[in-house]
Amino acid sequence: MPDTAVQGSVEEIAYRLFQHVAFAEKKGIAAGYKGESPDREWILKAYTDCLFAVRRPSGRGEGRLTPYGKGA
């Protein structure tokens, strides 16, 4: 069975997850990424939620997980 463990610090893993979320949400977060430019609020909320998810993967329903849309 292949090793599926992710290597890196909690913050590195959260940032990789954040990049995947940004791609899925069609947000242009870096050179080469196509899409809408996210505002500061979206970036901070998305990264915070990714960090929370990595730190407490079984924490569904606990704490604050927010949608990334307008007015969230």
Describe the structure.
The chain has a domain at 10-55. It has 2 helices and no strands. The longest helix is centred in the middle third of the chain and has 16 residues, at 40-55. The protein is an all-alpha fold. It has helices at residues 10-24, 40-55. Helix 1 packs across helix 2.
Q: What's the SSE pattern? A: HH
Mean pLDDT: 80
Helix/strand/pairing category: mainly alpha
- Please tally the β strands and state the result: 0
What helical percentage do the residues reach? 40-55%
How many individual helices?
A: 2
Rg over CA atoms, rounded to whole Å, is: 13 Å
Key features?
72 residues, mainly alpha, 2 helices, 43% helix, globular, disordered C terminus
